[in-house]
Amino acid sequence: MNANKNLQNNVTFVLILILAVLFLSPIFIVLMNSFKGRFFISDTPFALPNAQTFVGLENYTSGIVKTGFIPALGYSLFITVFSVAAIVLFTSMTAWCITRVKSKLSTFIYYLLIFSMIVPFQMVMFTMSKMANILHLDNPVGIIVLYLGFGAGLAVFIFSGFIKSIPLEVEEAATIDGCNPIQTFFLIVFPMLRPIAITVAILNAMWIWNDYLLPYLVIGSNYKTIPIAVQYLQGGYGSKDMGAMMALLVLAIIPIVIFYLVLQKYIIQGVAAGAVKG
Questions:
Q1: Does 181 reside within a domain?
Q2: Which domain does 249 fall in, by range?
Q3: Distance separating alpha carbons of residues 198 and 19, to the nearest angstrom
Q4: Could you read off the pLDDT of 15-59 as tens digits, one per residue?
């Protein structure tokens, strides 16, 4: 019995190790090539840097200068942080109201938000970009509203599943103690939503930080985010500064990887908690 269990554990460990190598190898290849000269990357993409190909931090400095990486980093941080904060705050309030207020209107709003999850972005992107221009949302502040709209469906769905598992008696006790609905939500309900709120924050932060198409359509080159800045290293007639591109990809990956590693333990916990009741 113990021998079979040990064999199963060893097989599982080997499979997980193989998957880890497969998933981490692209990141390692990008990191490795970021220290090579631009002309050697295409010829020997899988070879380690040597005395001939190693260029130190030259790719990083040239990439930062060519693309205006520092302003792009600022715009990406601003848009990601405030978009995620808006999604977590407003969708949690919406989910709580929809879950606790049983009416035809709340049910309609819930299914409308769920329906928005299955509508492909490509179907609405041109209309959306035109309306964003008309409503003056084509700036770093306005795009937060768009991200809130696109992220609301999944976030409300996840929050609603978790809120259904919270005993209603807890909120009734707060009401008896004199709390109004706003106080009940922020003092009682929202602290209990912490695991699921962190899960929603991680999922949306990874999406918004790496998103290229929506910022490109809405704010374009006026307020370049990191994905747009990296794309500007691709010149005309297919010319690319692969060295600088690899270096900027490494710099772009670092913040979101750190954010994920710090909070990743909440993902499974939050998703499992949100699936308690559907």
A1: yes
A2: 57-274
A3: 26
A4: 999 998 898 888 888 888 888 887 788 778 888 888 888 888 888
